[in-house]
Design a protein that fits this description.
Layout: H1 3-8, H2 27-34, H3 39-54, H4 91-115, H5 119-142, H6 147-163, H7 174-179, H8 182-189, H9 195-208, H10 218-230, H11 233-243, H12 249-268, H13 272-278, H14 281-290, H15 297-310, H16 314-322, H17 325-333, H18 343-360, H19 364-372, H20 375-385, H21 390-401, H22 407-415, H23 419-427, H24 440-457, H25 460-468, H26 472-508, H27 513-545, H28 548-560, H29 565-577, H30 587-599
Length: about 600
């Protein structure tokens, strides 16, 4: 078998199927294909295979007895004689071993090349890049109507941009990009007339700002990111995104890499989000979301990027509301009111949409837009349809009705007969859904929180309708409240017992007591303290404002299960004591809740 046959050899083992249905190419072809651009390495590969086939490795054996010799006068094609005790290998196994040896050699060569990139070589590469940029600009100005004249300079520019990707492995050298003003040239090229050049530059930026590759030297990555933001990178990326045609595969990849640059920079410095939002990014993201295009990776990435931005601050949430963002999010979510998402990516897309909506509703003005856009009706319909969107719809309602700013939504929810949809979930939460990561605990937390918010926000006949629900079906909902009280009370007690032992140890070690208490309170909330507090607030409120028979039922169950009124009062007082300024609870409301606890 000559060298050509060896490289073209394809074992008769059948096709290997991948998840996406593609078939695996022979590994020799993959290696050869990867080396096509480097003729010297391809020639070296041929020589390597010939030598390996002859048993020549280029390494001196440790003992002469182990060195393999060709028979005297034997032709090369006869190969090396094997000893009788040697196990014969199949041709496929031989090729795999040879390829593994070659890959190790290539890897060693790459590592060696990286080590050779010292300061001088990096500077030389950057200066070469600057020359190519200048040359291309010069040729385009000189021959604006004759592409053949400037095409060669464009190809040279593209080549040096690709070559600069080696800098992504050298974050400690990033300061040269700033000092030699290469960052300015990179920013200029984002809007190059040739979209291929723009796409190549964005691809380079994506690799340079990749957090994983810069984890060992984040300082260099932050320096580069600061320079990019100072150069209005957000605005330039948005302008480039506007002109890219995603029906072209390469340009669709450019869109994906542009979003990658933004995500990488937000991971380095979340405060960049405000700058990006003000430079038109939120507007473009919303435009891309509502575009009538098939669902793809870019639409998923668009929604994820918007979700990250909306977590930053109220200014970005306000910008979303002013750009009709609430309506756009509701329109996108409407697709899932009667149909479950298809596949894991659509599930992720749906959850990102819900996360965007929840973040947006943290701003009071957006709650009004949610109400006007009939968001309550859509969420209520999702609850009734019992599809995968149900848990997230419940979470959105929780955000929409919480605090004093949720009063209008609370009243409207009662008007659209939302209580009929909510209480069945409160009474019997759905089972855990692994696809979206929801659990009974999530449903219990959100349904209890919604009822608690409505009790605080409703008045008049609407409040009476809510309280009256607890007398239906022989106080079944009161029984459910008591069940939740004991369930979460026991959980919190178990955590408290563990924390008490830990508190003693930490104080002995000299830890700050205030820090210990803050940390412990958060851990208790995670264990279910929040749901316990909301449950007990509902209990004391309906006992005070509802029928006397409600309180009789509560006291009866407490006696049967050895519970105490004192424990409920203690929980309510702790709840009020830990309310902060960000909890949207006025001093009057605090006093009212404490008064309910005292009367209980």
């Amino acid at each position: 078998m000559d060298v050509g046959e060896l490289l073209a050899f394809k074992p008769q083992t059948g096709k290997r199927e991948y998840d996406d249905g593609a078939t695996e190419q022979p590994k020799t072809k993959v290696v050869k294909s990867a080396l096509k651009s480097d003729k010297s390495m391809e020639k070296e590969l041929d020589t390597f295979f010939v030598n390996a086939k002859l048993g020549v490795t280029g390494e001196r054996p440790k003992r002469k007895a182990t060195r393999l010799q060709l028979q005297s006068g034997a032709p090369i094609s006869s190969g090396v004689k094997r000893s009788e005790n040697e196990i014969d290998e199949t041709e496929e196994e031989r090729q795999m071993k040879l390829l593994e040896m070659w890959e190790e050699k290539v890897k060693a060569k790459e590592i060696n090349e990286e080590e050779q990139y010292d300061d001088q070589k990096v500077k030389k590469l950057i200066l070469t890049f600057e020359k190519k940029v200048y040359k291309n600009q010069e040729m385009r100005i000189k021959f604006p109507d004759n592409p053949e004249k400037f095409m060669e300079s464009e190809l040279d520019l593209n080549d040096v941009i690709v070559e600069m990707k080696i800098l992504a492995t050298l974050p400690e050298q990033y300061h040269y990009l700033v000092e030699l003003r290469a960052v300015n040239s990179l920013l200029t090229l984002i809007n190059h007339a040739n979209t291929d050049i723009a796409i190549a530059v964005v691809d380079l930026m994506q690799e340079l700002t990749e957090v994983d590759s810069n984890s060992e030297n984040e300082e260099g990555a932050i320096l580069l990111a600061d320079a990019l933001v100072e150069g209005q990178v957000g605005s330039l990326l948005v302008q480039n995104l506007e002109r890219l045609d995603e029906s072209v595969k390469e340009e669709a990849s450019g869109v994906h890499n542009s979003l990658g640059v933004i995500e990488n920079m937000l991971e380095l410095k979340p405060e960049f989000g405000m700058s990006f939002a003000q430079q038109g990014l939120v507007t473009w993201l919303l435009k891309r979301l509502k575009a009538k295009m098939p669902f793809d990776a870019n639409k998923l990435y668009t929604c994820e990027t918007l979700s990250i931005l909306l977590q930053q601050n109220d200014e970005i949430r306000k910008l979303l509301g002013e750009s009709d963002g609430i309506d756009i999010l509701l329109q996108q979510l409407a697709a899932f009111k009667r149909h479950d998402p298809k596949g894991a990516e659509e599930v992720e897309f749906m959850e990102n949409l819900f996360n965007c909506l929840c973040s947006a509703l943290l701003l009071a003005s957006n709650r009004g837009k949610f109400l006007q856009g009939e968001g309550l009706q859509l969420m209520n319909l999702m609850l009734r349809e019992k599809k995968m969107s149900r848990n997230s719809a419940l979470k959105v309602l929780d955000h929409a009705m919480s605090g004093p700013d949720g009063a209008s939504n609370s009243a409207k929810f009662v008007d659209i007969l939302g209580l009929r949809t909510l209480f069945p979930i409160f009474m019997k939460p759905p089972k855990k859904n692994k696809k979206i990561g929801s659990s009974r605990k999530d449903h219990e937390e959100h349904s209890v929180s919604i009822i608690s918010s409505m009790l605080q926000n409703l008045s008049g006949s609407q409040r009476q309708r809510l309280v009256a629900k607890f007398t239906e079906n022989d106080f079944a909902k009161v029984d459910r409240l008591m069940e939740l009280h004991f369930k979460y009370y026991d959980r919190v007690q178990r955590v408290d017992n563990r924390l008490e032992a830990e508190r003693t140890r930490l104080i002995a070690e000299g830890e700050d007591e205030e820090d210990i208490e803050d940390d412990f309170y958060l851990r208790r909330l995670d264990a279910g303290l929040f749901t316990l507090q909301q449950t007990d607030y509902i209990l004391v409120d309906i006992c005070a404002s509802g029928s006397p028979s409600i309180k009789q039922r509560v006291l009866q169950i407490l006696n049967l299960r050895s519970g105490s009124v004192k424990s409920i009062r203690t929980i309510i007082r702790e709840f009020v004591g830990n309310l902060g300024d960000g909890d949207n609870v006025s001093g009057v409301d605090r006093q009212r809740i404490l008064g309910l606890a005292d009367k209980f």
